[in-house]
Amino acid sequence: MTGYPLTPALFGKDAIAEDTAKLNEAMVGLMTGLPEWWNVGAETTREGRRQGKGPFPKAIKSPRARTILITGRDGNEIALRVIAPAVVRGVYLHIHGGGWVLGGADLQDPMLERIADKTGLAVVSVEYRLAPEDPYPAGTDDCESAAAWLIKHAKAEFGSDVLTIGGESAGGNLAAVTVLRMRDRYSYTGFRGANFVYGVFDMSMTPSQMAFGNRRLVLRTIDMQQFYNAFLPTTTDRRVPDISPLYGDLKGLCPALFSVGTCDALLDDTLFMHARWMAAQNDSELAVYPGGAHGFTLFPNRLADEAGARSEEFLRKVTA
User: Fold this and answer.
1) Distances in Å between the alpha carbon of 201 and those of 95, 131, 235, 284, 307?
2) Omega before 85 cis (within 30°)?
3) Tens digits of per-residue pLDDT, 247-275?
4) Cis ω for the linkage preceding 35 (within 30 of 0)
5) CATH classification of 8-318, choosing from 3.40.50.450, 3.40.50.1820, 1.20.210.10, 3.10.129.10?
6) What is the largest CA-CA distance in the chain?
7) What is each CA distance from 314 to 28, 117, 125, 159, 253, in whole angstroms?
8) Phi (first) and psi of residue 298, to 5 degrees
9) What tens digit of pLDDT does each residue of 144-157 get?
10) What pLDDT is attached to residue 2?
11) Cα gap 132→148, rounded to integer Å
């Protein structure tokens, strides 16, 4: 099993491999001088990301991807981007990151192709509505609608009703909230596993979020504050479980894998949520990667390969 022993040394500089340190330095350079999305506008920044401007490489689109259109709870149209293996063993409901403001279902196709091919799961990525144009609960509702649709239609559409769920960053938050909503609103506890990758679980801000400061390593404290304010412009209580699942009743949930790097502002979110998930008597695994910055799995690097292999191993295990 890929992973590192959870010891004090794991969090020290000496644990960071040379190639990871170089990647982090490169990311700082790419981030320096970039215009802030809240100054130039969300759509301008989204378009820049689609063109490969900034720290993230230009998205490679999979020729295998297809789109299913479903109707959301608000009557809106939701696109589900599907990348499936030749033989489908189950379904992975994927929710992308981007701070509820940026990102898209079609911006990480190579990663989703690999998940599909390594696990035998049809990957279904949700094109949920984004803030600030559509603040909470619009995007959250879209993820709920996608999950509800899969519960009803996965068997007919993919030949299997074995369901898993997961996501990165804001997608990890939305995946956790979706698991809770499906249990509480639909009495559905059938997810076989949840794959949470550097997720946001406390929007009232954990100590590591507040302490990260202005280090231009992908996600700064001010970035989180701006994302939260865009997603939650009228919400004062940010500790309600539908926003910050760390504060929810976590009993009776599926096995989960929580992954994060030690140089991520969201380190505490993963450590705390893993502990609470386990304390609620759910199976929980923790994978902490030395030197991993926020978003490290989206860049070509050794640490990303290790984290990907661990996630794929987990998804294979819970769907066996």
Assistant:
1) 14, 18, 16, 15, 20
2) no
3) 999 999 999 999 999 999 999 999 999 99
4) no
5) 3.40.50.1820
6) 53
7) 31, 14, 19, 21, 16
8) -95, 0
9) 999 999 999 999 99
10) 59
11) 25
Distance CA(182)–CA(39), nearest Å, equals: 37
The CA distance from 249 to 282, in Å, is 12
Please check whether residue 311 is in contact with residue 36, taking contact to mean a CB–CB distance below 8 angstroms.
no
pLDDT tier for residue 3 given thresholds of 50, 70 and 90: low
Q: Residue 312: what residue type?
A: E
Q: Which of 223, 293, 302, 214 is nearest to 260 (CA)?
A: 293
Q: Does the pLDDT value for residue 204 go beyond 60?
A: yes
Instruction: Give CA torsion, residues 141, 144, 149, 151, to 10 deg.
Output: -170
Q: Are strands 256-263 and 121-127 parallel, antiparallel or unpaired?
A: unpaired
